[in-house]
TrEMBL record, chain A:
Pfam families for the chain: ABC_tran
Species assigned in the record: Cohnella terricola
Keyword tRNA processing among UniProt keywords: no
Coiled-coil region list: none
Protein name (database record): ABC transporter ATP-binding protein
UniProtKB/TrEMBL annotation, chain B:
Protein name, as recorded: ABC transporter permease
Positions of the ABC-2 type transporter transmembrane domain: 20-367
Any GO MF annotation of the entry: ABC-type transporter activity
Biological source species: Cohnella terricola
Subcellular locations according to the entry: Cell membrane
C-alpha cells in the first residue's frame, strides 16, 4: 500500500519552476531517502506534502485520500520534523510536546500519556519540566522529533534531523528513526549526510532541478553508475588547477575540487588516468595520493547531478 | 478548544518573558511616579494666600482713616496676611522689587497708591482686591459722615465684620473636580501602556515565523481562523491584564482617582488594547521584513507624545493641535477624564466606537492577507 503518492506535481514561484511534473510513490513501512542539493526542489516538495504550500498542478495522495479533497485527514496522519528546530524555548519540554499534540485533538489523560511516551522515546523523559533553552543542540533536536510523533502519525517527514549535533546524539536519532519504522511508521528522510541515508533508507530518490532523476534502493542506484569509475586525487596547489582542461580529457564526465580532493568521474571503459595525471603535472599541481572509489551514494549523486549534495 | 489552547500558550509565554512584564508593568508605574511627582505644580489649582506681605506708609494725617486702617490690618492679620508699616529709612517700592513684600501701599490724604509685585501677580491681585474693598467702605463711611456721623462711626466700627469679616471671598469658577498630577499620569500611563500592546501585536505571527514554529502550526489540523483567533485573544488578554495591574497599582498604592464608573473605564481601556493589538497585527502584515516593529514603535511614541502621555496637551488649532486628535491615546485620555471627573460618558462611548471600528478594519486587513498567504 502506498502511504504517499505524488502525481505530476508542479510548483511555480512566478516564472521559476521549483518542482517540475514530479511523480513518486512511498510505500508503507519504508524509510524513504529524499536527496537533493540546495535549491533542487526537495523542501518545496516536502512543504507541499505537509500542506504548507499549495501545488500549482498535480496531486498528492496520503493513505489513499487526496490532500486537495481532505487536507485535515492528511494533516492528522503526517508528523513533521522541520530542519530548523521548531519549539518554544519558554515552555518546558512537556508543555511543548503537549501543546503540539493538543492541536491534533489529543486531550486529558490520553494527551498526557502520549506526551510522556514521546518524551521517553527520544530520551527526554527525565527532562520533562526543563526549559529547552537549557538543552544542548542534540537534546533540542530530540525534542523537535518528540513534538512530531506524539500524535502517532502514519507518515513522518524528517528534514535534516541531525544537522549540527554531536555523533552520540546523531546515533540516538538514527536509532530512533529505525525504531519508529519498526513501530509501523513510514518515514521520508532528507539529509546532507550520505552515510546516514545509506545506513537507514530502504529506498532513495534523487532530486535535481525540480525533477526526480533517479529512484530505487541503494543497490539499484549504485548500479546506475557501474559504467563509470571514480578517482579521488589528493592534491596540493589546487588553486592553479584548470578544471576545464581536466574536464576536456577524453572520457571525463565530471570534475570537482573539494578542499584538496579532486573528484573525477569518468566513463568506465576509457582508461584516462595517465592523461589526467599529465595534465595535473603540466599545471604544476603536486599529487599527494590517488584512490579509486567504489560506487557509493555520494559518487552516484555526483555522477548524476555533477554537484555535491552540500552545494 | 484549539483557540483556548493557543490563547493560553500566548498568555503563558508572555508571563514567562520577564523583560516584557517589566516593560509593561514597571515602566508605566515608574513613569507615573516620576512625572506625577515632578509635575505636581502644573496640576495644582491652589494658591495659598497666607504668604501675602503688605508694606504700608500712612501719610494721610487723618485720624479716622488711620483708625479704620488699623481695624482693617487686624482683620487681615487674622486671615493670615501680614501688614507692616514701613520703617524709617526703608523705600517701599524697593522692598517690593526685592521680593520682601507682595505690595506697598501709600495712604495719603488724597487717596491710596498701590505698588504690586510682578513676581507675585496672583498675590498682588488679591492685595489689590482687598484694598479696593477697604477703599469702598471708607468712601462709604466718609459720605455717611457728612450726613450722619453716627452711622459713619458704625460703619467704621464694624470694619471687617459687616460681611462676616471677609475682605476675600472665595468663589470657585470651576466647581467640577479635576485630576491632580498622579491622577492624570495614572490615566495617561495606563492608556499609553495599553497602546504599547501594538508592539506585541506586530510580533504575534512574525514571532512564530522566526521561531520556525509556524511550520508546525500550519502543518497541524487546525483552521487558520482558530490560530488567528487564539493568538489575538491571548495577546489581548495578557495586555489587558497588564493594564489592569497598572490601574490597581495606581489606585491602591498611589491613591489615583479612577472614579466610580469602573465598567466604562475598563471598556475604554479594553477596546484600546484591542485596537492596539489589531493595529500591530495589521502593520505586521502590511509592512514587510523587520520593519513592522520599528513602524509600530515610532507610531506609539508619536501617539503617546501628542496624546498627552508625558504632559497634558491642548488643541490650539495648530498642526500639532490637530495631530493630537489623531492619537488614540488622546481619545482614551479625554474619555476617561470625562467619565471619571465630570460623569460625562459621551466621549467614552465615542472612543469605544472608534476603537472597535478601527480594530475591526485592521483585523479584517490581517485576515484577508493571512488567507491569501500560503505561510503565516
Amino acid at each position: 500500500m502506498n502511504v504517499l503518492e505524488i502525481r505530476n506535481l508542479t510548483k511555480k514561484f512566478g516564472d521559476f519552476i521549483a518542482v517540475d511534473n514530479m511523480s513518486l510513490n512511498v510505500r508503507e513501512g519504508e524509510i524513504f531517502g529524499f536527496l537533493g542539493a540546495n535549491g533542487a526542489g526537495k523542501s518545496t516538495t516536502i512543504n507541499m506534502i505537509s500542506s504548507l504550500l499549495r501545488s500549482t498542478k498535480g496531486e498528492i495522495v496520503i493513505l489513499g485520500r487526496s490532500i486537495a479533497s481532505d487536507v485535515q485527514f492528511a494533516k492528522m496522519n503526517i508528523g513533521i520534523v522541520p530542519q530548523d528546530i521548531a519549539i518554544y524555548e519558554d515552555m518546558t519540554a512537556y508543555e511543548n510536546v503537549s501543546f503540539f499534540a493538543g492541536l491534533y485533538g489529543l486531550r486529558g489523560a490520553h494527551l498526557k500519556e502520549r506526551t510522556e511516551e514521546a518524551l521517553n522515546f527520544v530520551g527526554l523523559g527525565d527532562k520533562q519540566k526543563s526549559l529547552p533553552k537549557n538543552f544542548s543542540g542534540g537534546m533540542k533536536r530530540r525534542l523537535n522529533i518528540a513534538c512530531a510523533i506524539a500524535h502517532r502519525p502514519k507518515l513522518i517527514i524528517m528534514d535534516e534531523p541531525t544537522v549540527g549535533i554531536d555523533p552520540q546524539s546523531r546515533n540516538y536519532i538514527l536509532n530512533s528513526v529505525k525504531q519508529l519504522n519498526r513501530m509501523g511508521c513510514t518515514i521520508i528522510y532528507t539529509s546532507h549526510y550520505m552515510e546516514e541515508v545509506e545506513e537507514i533508507c530502504t529506498r532513495i530518490a534523487i532530486v535535481d532541478h525540480g525533477k526526480i532523476i533517479a529512484e530505487g534502493t541503494k543497490e539499484q542506484l549504485k548500479a546506475i553508475v557501474t559504467d563509470t569509475k571514480n578517482v579521488w586525487i589528493e592534491v596540493r596547489g589546487g588553486d592553479h588547477l584548470n578544471i576545464n582542461s581536466v574536464k576536456h580529457i577524453q572520457g571525463v564526465l565530471s570534475v570537482r575540487l573539494d578542499d584538496h580532493m579532486l573528484k573525477i568521474s569518468s566513463k568506465g571503459e576509457i582508461n584516462n588516468l595517465n592523461l589526467i595525471l599529465q595534465q595535473l603535472i603540466q599545471d604544476r599541481i603536486e599529487i599527494r595520493s590517488i584512490e579509486e572509489q567504489a560506487p557509493n551514494l555520494e559518487t552516484v549523486f555526483l555522477t548524476l547531478t555533477g554537484r555535491n549534495l552540500r552545494d | 478548544m484549539n483557540v483556548y489552547n493557543i490563547a493560553l500558550r500566548e498568555i503563558k509565554s508572555s508571563l514567562r518573558e520577564p523583560r516584557t512584564m517589566l516593560f509593561m508593568l514597571a515602566f508605566p508605574i515608574v513613569l507615573m511616579l516620576i512625572l506625577g511627582t515632578a509635575l505636581s505644580n502644573v496640576f495644582s489649582n491652589f494658591t495659598p494666600v497666607d504668604n501675602i506681605r503688605l508694606l504700608y506708609s500712612n501719610e494721610s494725617g487723618q485720624p479716622q482713616l488711620t483708625q479704620y486702617w488699623e481695624s482693617f490690618s487686624q482683620e487681615m492679620g487674622r486671615q493670615g496676611i501680614d501688614i507692616a508699616p514701613i520703617a524709617s529709612g526703608q523705600v517701599g517700592r524697593e522692598q517690593v522689587r526685592e521680593g520682601q513684600y507682595t505690595a506697598y501701599v501709600e495712604l495719603k490724604a488724597d487717596g491710596m497708591q498701590l505698588y504690586g509685585s510682578s513676581k507675585q501677580s496672583i498675590e498682588s491681585n488679591i492685595a489689590q482686591g482687598m484694598l479696593t474693598a477697604f477703599a469702598d467702605r471708607y468712601n462709604l463711611a466718609a459720605a455717611a459722615f457728612r450726613s450722619d456721623p453716627s452711622k459713619a462711626e458704625a460703619i467704621l466700627a464694624n470694619a471687617g465684620a459687616v460681611t462676616g469679616g471677609e475682605f476675600i471671598r472665595e468663589t470657585s469658577l470651576n466647581p467640577n473636580k479635576s485630576p491632580g498630577s498622579i491622577d492624570y499620569y495614572a490615566i495617561a500611563m495606563t492608556t499609553m501602556i495599553a497602546l504599547y500592546a501594538a508592539i506585541s501585536g506586530s510580533y504575534l505571527f512574525r514571532g512564530e515565523r522566526t521561531r520556525h514554529t509556524a511550520i508546525r502550526l500550519m502543518a497541524a489540523p487546525i483552521a487558520k481562523g482558530e490560530l488567528f483567533a487564539g493568538k489575538v485573544i491571548g495577546c489581548t488578554l495578557i495586555n489587558f491584564l497588564s493594564v489592569l495591574v497598572v490601574v490597581l497599582f495606581s489606585k491602591f498604592v498611589f491613591q489615583a482617582d479612577w472614579g466610580s464608573h469602573y465598567g466604562i473605564v475598563f471598556l475604554v481601556l479594553g477596546t484600546e488594547v484591542v485596537l492596539a493589538v489589531s493595529l500591530g497585527l495589521g502593520v505586521g502584515y502590511l509592512v514587510q521584513g523587520e520593519s513592522p516593529r520599528a513602524v509600530v514603535m515610532i507610531f506609539t511614541q508619536i501617539a503617546s507624545f501628542v496624546g498627552g502621555a508625558y504632559f497634558p496637551v491642548e488643541s490650539d488649532g495648530s498642526f500639532m493641535g490637530v495631530l493630537t486628535y489623531l492619537s488614540p491615546l488622546r481619545w482614551a485620555n479625554t474619555a476617561l477624564i470625562g467619565a471619571i471627573y465630570t460623569d460625562d460618558m459621551s466621549a467614552a462611548w465615542q472612543t469605544i466606537g472608534l476603537n472597535v471600528g478601527i480594530a475591526a478594519a485592521f483585523l479584517l486587513i490581517s485576515i484577508v492577507i493571512m488567507r491569501k498567504r500560503e505561510v503565516l
